[in-house]
Amino acid sequence: MFLSILSYFDSMKFEKRDIILIVGLLLFMVGLIPFIMPIYAAIIVTLMYFGIKVYVAKRRQSIQRDVGEGICMECGSKISNKRCINCDHLQE
Question: What are the CA-CA distances from residue 79 to residues 5, 52, 62, 71 (Å)?
Fold first, then answer.
């Protein structure tokens, strides 16, 4: 389990679009400050940031696992061993 968590952190590299996420979360934090203490707002925003990053990393790994070698342009199914399972089956 610990190794799977480490693999998520490896795939959570900083990207350009993270700047948009950070700015949005900072604006969310500013909106929370009138209702709760600033330290709690900062904690909530920090947890949201890492939660979003873990979710995106998990989703990216899931898509990568589903796609495999690629996607067939004809039917959209997964390609394995450089052959489409559906299209090659229909041609036979």
Answer: 29, 30, 16, 6
Q: What is the C-alpha to C-alpha distance for residues 76 and 62, in angstroms, rounded to an integer? A: 17
Angle of the 2-10 helix axis to the 38-67 helix axis, nearest 10: 90
Asked if residue 26 lies in contact with residue 45, where contact means CB atoms within 8 angstroms, the answer is yes
**pLDDT tens-digit readout, 44-76:** 999 999 999 999 889 988 887 777 777 777 777
Q: Which of 80, 64, 60 is nearest to 72 (CA)?
A: 80
Rounded CA gap, 41 and 76, in Å?
Answer: 44
Please name which of 27, 25, 29, 48 lies closest in space to residue 37, comparing C-alpha atoms. 29
Distance spanning both ends of the chain, measured CA to CA: 44
User: Whole-prediction pTM value?
Assistant: 0.66
Contact 60, 52 (CB under 8 A): no
